[in-house]
Task: inverse folding
C-alpha cells in the first residue's frame, strides 16, 4: 500500500513569514494577520485541503544580524512585527473539526509550569489536536529582551531544552492518574485527591514543586515537533521528536537527514516509524508549465532582497552585508552559516553563491526549495521527495490565500487520485491520526517518566 | 441623566469558580469548561445581555491552606483543576462583536516581555476589547510551583507589580510611534525603522533590552483592572487601575471602598471618574419572592461546605480547620483573615461567625453577597448599590447557564426600562465604551511613560 503523504500548512502570526516583499502585491492578504477572520478563513481553507495541521512558526527577538541592525527586517516586515502564535489557535479551532495545530515555543518565553498549562488547555479545547514545536532560539536580541547578555551557547541550549521538555512531560504524564477525575455528581467528588501528586523537580535550570493544575487532556503530551539539524539538534530530535522538520534543497538532502534522525532514534531504542519527517516546501502552481513559470517570475519581481537577507543573516548568524551583493561567498563551509546553508550547497557543492543569489532564493523560497509546475508535475516531484525518505511536507505559502488555494484546488486532487493524500480525516486526536496511538509510547521519555500509582 | 450600570460576567476556566458543590446539580454545565462550545455559548449569552465584559479570574497554585492540604479543593473542584484563561478569549471573540474580555494574570506566570506581546495580540484580534486584571498572587503553593520557597511578602508583591506594569506600559506605549507602521505596498515599507525604539529597562526585579515585537494594537495598554483591598492594594489601584473590583457584603461597604480608591486616585492627580468600581455580586432570580427564596434554598442544599472552606482559607491565608465547625471565630479582627473578611463583619460588626457560617456564605455567595428576589426587587437593590457609590457589578453565577439566563432575561430588561442598562453597545474599543477615550490619559503612568519622538 502506498503510504499517504503528510502535510502541514506552514504559517506565522506576522506579515512576512518566508517570502519578503510578497505582501506588497495586490493579491496578498498577509497584512490582515491581526484579524480573526484572516485566521478563520485560513483554517477553513487548510482543512478543506485535508492537511494534517497548521504549523505555526514563531520567533522571539528581531532580525538584527544583517548590517548589525533591525532596519531591513522592520522595513520588509520580515517576521517583525510578530504576534503570539498560540492565541490564534482557539479561534481556528472553532471553525475546524480535525485540523491539528503545531505551535512553536521557545524556552525563553515561558516557564515550564506556565507552558504546561497552556498546552493542556489548548489540547482540551481542541479535543487533542495540539502539537508543540520545541525551539531553543537563535537570536541574541531575544536573550537581551529577556534580560540576558546573550543566548547560552548552542549545545547548552539543547541541555536546557532537554530539562524543559522532561519537566513538562512529568507535569503532563505523571501528576494526574488516569482515573483521578471522577466528576461524579452523586458523590460530589470531582477529583480524587489521592490520584494527584506533586512533581518535585530540582534541576540545573528549573525548579518546580507542585502538581499540574490542568486535568489530563486528550493527548496529555502534545505531539512533539522539532527542527534542529546540527549534531546536537538531531540527537535531541531522536530522543524527543515525533515529527521533525527538515530543510533541504533537493530530495536526497532531506532524505539523508531523515535517515540520520531515524538511525539515531533507533539507537535510542525507538522505532524509525515513530518519527515522521516533514520537508520544508513551497510551490508555484500553473495550468501549464509555462503559466507556472510566468507566475514564478511575476512573484520574483516582488521579492524584497534586503528583507530576504535580514532573515538569512538572522537564521545563520552571519552578517552578509560585509560581502558585496554579487561577490561569491567563498568561506561558506567554514563559518556559522554552514549548518544552515547545508541545504543549499549539498544540492550542488560546486555551486558558487553570492548574497544576491541567497536573497533571491530566500525571497521566494524562504529557507528552502520552490517547486514550479503543473499539478501533475508537482505531484510527481513531491513523490520523488517521499521516495527519498521523507514522510511529508511543511508547505509554506507564496501569496495568501491564492498560492495555497492553487495547491489545494490543483495539486491535492491529483495526490488524492493517486492515493497519496487523504480524502477525509481519520477519527481521533492528532497523534492518533498521525501514528495510530493516543499516547506517547516507551521508550520515549514522556512515556518512561510515568511512575506507577500505588 | 441616570448613569448606566456597568456589568461584567465573572467567570473562570474551571469547574467551581465561586460556588462549590453547585456543579453536582443536573441543571449545571460548568463541568463542560474544557469544551469550546461551552465558551462560545457563554459569550453569546453574555453579549445578548449587553454586559460590558467577561471578567476571567485565574489562580496559580492550589488551595492547600485548609487542613494544610489540597484535598478539599480537589474533591470539590474548587478552582482546581484550572485551565489557562487567556486561551478561551480568541474563541469567544469569534462569536461576539462588542463584548470585552478582562483577563487575570499573576506576575509569577509570565515574564513581562512575553506578557506584553500576549496582550497586544489579543487586543489586535479583538479589535481593542481586552482588559488586564493585575494580580500579585496569594498562594504559597504558586510560589513553590515556580521554584520559590514562598511568595514575597505582601507589600513587596505590590512593588514588583508596580515595576511589572510600568515595564509593560513602556512596551505598549513608548516603543512604537503612532506612525511607525506604514504598510505601504507602493514603497514596500511596512514599518519605518526610525519610528521603533528599544525599551531599556534595568529594574530591581526585571531587565528588558529590546523593542516591543507587536505593532501598536487598538488600545495599546489594555483596560487595567485591579482588586487589592489593603492599604497598599488601594494605593496601587489608585495609581494604575481604570476598573477596580471590590467585595462588600453591603452597599455601604463597597461604597466606602469606592470612595477610598477615588480619593487616593485624586490625590495621585487623576479624576475620580477615571476609576470605575465594580462590586462583586451574585443573584438568585424568581418570578415571585417566594419562588426566588425556594430557588436559593434549593441551591443551598448543594453547597459543598469543605470546598467553600478550602476557598476561604486560601483567600484569607487562615486555616479554619483548627476551629470547630460551629465554634464562633473570636479572633477574626486580629489575624490575616481580617483584610479579606472585612466585607463580612463591616455589615454588622457585632455578628458572630462560625466556620460553618462562612462556608455557607461562601458556598452560595462565593466571596461576597447574594441578592434574592424578583427582577424588580433585584433591580431596586442593585440601584441601592449604585447609590452607595459603585459603578457596576462583577456578576458571578450560581448554576450555568440557567442562573445567568435568569438574570439576563429577567433583571436586565427591568434595568434597561429604567434607563440603568444599555440596550445596545456603543461603538469603539472597551476603553471607549467604558470611559469615552481610546488611550490611557495622563497622569496615568501608562500615559506619562510616553517619551517624545524626534
Result:
Amino acid at each position: 500500500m502506498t503510504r499517504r503523504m503528510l502535510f502541514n500548512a506552514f504559517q506565522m502570526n506576522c506579515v512576512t513569514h518566508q517570502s519578503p516583499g510578497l505582501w506588497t502585491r495586490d493579491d496578498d492578504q498577509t497584512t490582515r494577520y491581526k484579524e480573526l477572520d484572516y485566521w478563520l478563513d485560513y483554517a477553513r481553507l487548510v482543512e478543506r485541503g485535508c492537511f494534517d495541521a497548521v504549523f505555526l512558526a514563531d520567533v522571539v527577538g528581531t532580525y538584527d544580524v544583517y548590517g548589525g541592525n533591525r532596519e531591513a527586517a522592520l522595513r520588509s516586515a520580515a517576521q517583525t512585527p510578530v504576534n503570539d502564535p498560540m492565541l490564534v489557535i482557539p479561534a481556528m479551532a472553532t471553525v475546524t473539526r480535525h485540523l491539528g495545530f503545531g505551535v512553536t515555543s521557545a524556552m525563553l518565553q515561558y516557564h515550564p509550569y506556565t507552558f504546561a498549562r497552556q498546552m493542556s488547555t489548548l489540547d482540551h479545547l481542541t479535543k487533542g489536536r495540539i502539537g508543540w514545536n520545541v525551539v531553543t532560539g537563535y537570536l541574541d536580541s531575544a536573550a537581551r529582551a529577556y534580560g540576558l547578555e546573550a543566548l547560552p551557547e548552542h549545545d547548552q541550549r539543547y541541555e536546557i531544552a532537554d530539562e524543559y521538555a522532561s519537566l513538562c512531560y512529568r507535569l503532563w504524564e505523571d501528576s494526574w492518574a488516569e482515573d483521578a477525575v471522577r466528576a461524579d455528581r452523586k458523590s460530589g467528588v470531582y477529583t480524587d485527591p489521592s490520584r494527584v501528586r506533586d512533581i518535585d523537580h530540582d534541576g540545573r535550570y528549573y525548579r518546580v514543586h507542585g502538581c499540574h493544575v490542568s486535568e489530563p487532556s486528550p493527548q496529555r503530551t502534545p505531539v512533539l515537533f522539532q527542527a534542529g539539524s546540527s549534531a546536537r539538534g538531531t540527537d535531541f530530535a531522536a530522543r524527543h521528536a515525533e515529527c521533525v522538520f527538515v530543510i533541504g534543497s533537493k530530495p536526497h538532502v532531506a532524505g539523508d537527514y531523515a535517515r540520520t534522525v531515524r538511525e539515531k532514534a533507533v539507537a535510542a531504542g525507538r522505532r524509525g516509524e515513530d518519527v515522521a519527517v516533514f520537508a520544508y516546501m513551497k510551490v508555484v502552481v500553473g495550468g501549464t508549465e509555462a503559466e507556472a513559470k510566468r507566475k514564478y517570475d511575476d512573484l520574483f519581481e516582488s521579492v524584497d532582497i534586503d528583507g530576504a537577507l535580514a532573515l538569512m543573516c538572522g537564521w545563520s548568524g552571519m552578517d552578509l552585508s560585509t560581502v558585496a551583493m554579487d561577490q561569491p561567498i567563498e568561506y561558506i563551509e567554514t563559518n556559522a552559516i554552514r549548518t544552515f546553508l547545508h541545504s543549499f550547497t549539498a544540492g550542488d557543492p560546486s555551486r558558487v553563491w553570492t548574497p544576491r543569489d541567497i536573497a533571491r532564493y530566500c525571497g521566494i523560497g524562504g529557507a528552502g526549495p520552490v517547486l514550479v509546475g503543473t499539478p501533475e508535475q508537482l505531484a510527481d516531484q513531491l513523490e520523488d521527495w517521499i521516495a527519498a525518505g521523507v514522510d511529508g511536507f511543511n508547505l509554506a505559502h507564496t501569496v495568501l490565500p491564492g498560492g495555497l488555494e492553487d495547491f489545494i484546488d490543483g495539486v491535492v486532487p491529483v495526490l488524492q487520485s493517486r492515493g497519496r493524500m487523504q480524502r477525509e480525516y481519520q477519527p481521533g486526536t492528532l497523534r492518533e491520526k498521525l501514528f495510530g496511538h493516543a499516547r506517547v509510547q516507551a521508550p520515549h521519555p514522556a512515556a518512561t517518566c510515568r511512575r506507577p500509582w500505588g
Summary: The domain at 6-178+196-304+368-448 of chain B is CATH 3.20.20.30 (TIM Barrel). Residues 154-174 of chain B form the longest helix (21 residues). Chain B touches chain A through 79 residues (CB under 8 Å).
